[in-house]
Amino acid sequence: MERVLIVDDDPDIQRLVTYNLRQAGFEVSTAASGRKALESVQKDPPDLIILDLMLPDVDGIEVCRTLRQHEASRRIPIVMLTARSEEIDRIVGFELGADDYVMKPFSPRELVLRIRSIFRRMKQQPSEALRVDAIQLYPERRQCLVGGNPITLTAKEFDLLYELIRGRGNVLTREALMDKVWGYHGEATSRTLDTHVRRLREKLGSSGSAVETVRGVGYRMAVPAEGETS
């Protein structure tokens, strides 16, 4: 049974989300502050975190940043739950490694569906390594190597690279990528996608050029010509 940690200082939100998640078959724990959340994750890492941005001590952005800096919590999916609706807040959240972004007021049923979508994508990823040029991707371990050296990717950067490599030279439209990587892509915009592609290319170094832009359509992962090694 997957365990979800709810981080929110509003007791009504805690009760609402807890009830719906337990009805859906999830195990639930809660934390009312950013500091308590970090302590909880350190002691007993959950399978997924629902994180409010506006917390009384350490805000959600800083909590997310801290979690992504530590190996034990780097790969835990994070769904940000907040009343902030500005696009820049969503972009910052995604850049820090959030897996989804839900605005208050929200539908508990939709939140449950988004969480299930995240877990489903994680289970569908194969265990064997995917390779293109100097890039090696290990979906089960959520690990990426370039030229044999590990690089740190956020959850969304990893999922984006995974989908591009799976495409093996086929063009993926912007809409298809947002749907595959963000699932419910109403909160993802073209600017969000472009930002993630730019950051992914930077992290891949010289191999970043393999992520090609197909103007007016989307992106694809270049594959070695026939006869070349991959």
Walk me through this protein's architecture.
It is built from 8 helices and 12 strands. It has 2 domains: 3-123, Rossmann fold (3-Layer(aba) Sandwich), CATH 3.40.50; 126-221, Orthogonal Bundle (Arc Repressor Mutant, subunit A). Helix 2 (34-43) packs parallel to helix 3, helix 4 (87-95) packs parallel to helix 8 and helix 6 packs across helix 8. The relative contact order is 0.11. 42% of the residues lie in helices and 21% in strands. Strand 11 (211-214) and strand 12 (218-221) form a beta hairpin.
Give a brief description.
The protein is built from 8 helices and 12 strands.
CATH architecture designation of the largest domain: 3-Layer(aba) Sandwich
Characterize the main sheet.
Answer: 5 strands, parallel
User: How much helicity do the residues have?
Assistant: 40-55%
CATH topology name of the largest domain, in short, is: Rossmann fold
Radius of gyration based on Cα positions: 18 Å
Order of helix and strand elements from N to C terminus: EHEHEHEHEHEEEEHEHHEE
Q: How many beta-strand elements?
A: 12
The coarse overall form would be: globular
- Residue stretches low in confidence (pLDDT < 50, at least 5 long) are 226-230
If you average the pLDDT, what whole number results? 86
| Count of all domains | 2
The span between the termini is 38 Å
- Please state roughly what percent of the residues sit in beta strands, choosing from under 5%, 5-15%, 15-25%, 25-35%, 35-45% or over 45%: 15-25%
How would you write the strand order of the largest sheet?
A: 2-1-3-4-5
